[in-house]
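Re: folding output
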Amino acid sequence: MAESGRKLVPLEGLRGIAAAIVVLYHLVLAFTPKGVGAVPHGYGALGTMTQFALGMLNGGAAVAVFFVLSGFILSLPFGRDRRFSRVVMALLKRWPRLACLTVIACLIAFALISWSGHEYKAAAHVIGAGWLASHGNSPIRLGHLSWEGALREGLVNVFTQGEVKFDSPLWTMRIELFGSFAIFFAAPVLFAIGSWVVRLGLVGLAVYVSGTGYPFTFLADFLMGTVLAILFAEDRLPKLGNKAAALLGGLGLYFFSFTYEQNLLIHAPLKLLLSARYSHYIWDAGAALIIIVLLGNPAVRRAFSHSWAVWLGLLSFPIYLLHGPILLSAGSVAFMDGVGTFGMVGAAVMAAFCSILLTLACALPLAWVDKIWTRLLSRVMKLPGYATAWLIKNAQAGA
């Protein structure tokens, strides 16, 4: 994904913001009694704003943004090069690209679980947080955990079985891998087709066939990213003035904040029109509108093109991988250490602060590892091409 030799920085910033929302969402689930279910009622302006702010802590919508961005980023290169060899290289590269960091994350999670033990259960009992009591919806038995199991999970099982005993946020990795594979086949075809009627017809058919059940409904996220990538590559994304950007951006955030589980009054109109099984597509629409505003409005694009966006994008993947095991272990320990002195609220703040600080501290070196690993993979994947060119050159010289 290049723009004058550089990444599309606004989208990197969006990825980082989505990662931060996932972290905050899990912190609220872990260290507050009602999680994200504490919904204020009222029809006044303050009540509406509070509901909107709570809706923005939407971990499911943030994950949908990740997948839409993946569809965009992975599709864009096929606008320039649709050779079959490129598809093969992309397929071969994707699993090792992801697995390096997932292995490290699972091994770190094993070390943290071994150190903290059942402290998360003690904290969950005091707080009354069900998500924390279930170890982030991934129940564990300490006696059955080992570093070999962590290695196996990060390397294979998380991708083939969706196993997340050590690091619960990694449930997305199987979807990321196979969604990527789908895009590597779909993007070259969609780019090669000139008719938008045929393109959208094929995308709609794929979404319909995949259905609305887990995990197949996530295919729509990746395909939404592909459609946006084609529009961007063909310079068809709309150029937006400030008023249009504000309107579309606000609508995108409104869609992003939608959740069928929370009884937020601001979402009542959507619930009248759609059943629960279609709510996932609302997030796709929200992600698409936000991306269109980021790329189509000069003022917003400039605001999201500074160094903070570069850093957020660089750290987003490591933060996502590490925040779960860190808040479940170190966060729980910090809470239990502070609850006797600072009370429930003070201990929750202390746990959140420690979790965020430690996640950032660990994410920095992991981002460096990821950068080196990505470069190495790119070089390795180019070797067959170099070897072929060398053979052709020597054969021609011999002739």
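--- second protein (sequence, then structure) ---
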Amino acid sequence: MNGGLQQGAEGQADGRQKMRFLLLYALAWAGCAIAYVPFLTVLLPLRVTDMAGSADVRVLGYLTFGGAIFASVANIAFGWLSDRTANRRIWVAVGMAGTITLLLAVPMARTAPMLLGLLLVWQIFLNMMMAPLSAWAGDCVPDRQKGLLGGLMAFAPAAGAVTSAFITTPGLAGPDGRLWLVAGIVAICVLPVLIVGRPEPFPELMDDDLGGPAEAVDSAKPVKRMWAARLAVQISEAALFAYLLYWFRSIDADMTDADIARIFGFVLAAAVPLALLSGRWADRAGRPILPLAVTAFLGSVGLLGMALAQGLEFALAGYVLFGLATTVFLSLHSSQTLRVLPRARHRGRDLGFFNLTNTVPSLVMPWLTIAIVPAFGYPTLMAILAGLTFIACLLLASTSRALRR
């Protein structure tokens, strides 16, 4: 298979995908995170502040809201197009080229409307790269390696955070130079899988036979549970990502943004080996969903600890537990989702609908926080998020029993 959907000979004799391709794929997935994490969390806010001054929060809000909507639609559209054209590789390549080009064009946006237009088109190309790349793994990574795949995908968030820290090193590069650094790193990460990635074909992964209507209904149940569970966890994760500094300062006024960045970086780095170990165990034990249920439970315990925290030490312990658990959860969930999607010929499109669990929380979370925190405080917010995450645990526990082999 050369990045498309057409399958030829059987895979390797042991029924596993080549480790070389898995590593190249994980590198490309990390490149996707590098394409958006430094830009959306550091470079874009700084540029908006320089451009809009005191109106930066309002302008950034418009940019974030519009970007989330365009990302949602584009991910579904390009997943579907890569299904229809039976080729993932070409869409990833064009999306990468457009993403890099528009990053380098950011300095040309002199006004907020120009920057908004550029950001929306950039979101289209970013999702043109990410949606087919996500579906490509479903085409060529067998179920027995999906846990390993999820563990390798855990490198992506850490790579995005490390790149953000690297490009903002004092004296390394100016605002425009940082964009060039990001663009170059993205190309270095994504190009290898496009140029030399030659995965072994697995024709069984392209089977589309669901049997009769009863089988189709049964297959839809784990899909819906997986979707709802990820949405619940992502709402909690999005709330913490946006308001973590404010929450820590409500407990200890001396906490700084640098302190939060170090804690966040530690969590992302420590989650990588945990995700790899959990994924390998899931593959070997034949319990693909159980680690998801366990990490969702641990995430809810961490949030409950945060709700009850009275001092900084307890608060830090609760957040570290939550951060580690949800980082592992999201990485493994991304790969195990490929296991439950019912129709190979709609894999890219269906993954686009799963991607709504990443973008919808950005639209829901601000209103949830505004409605709760001023009236009831952060402990109530944390308790509600703990309840949401525990619901995800229950959904996944029932799915684990259904899929146990």
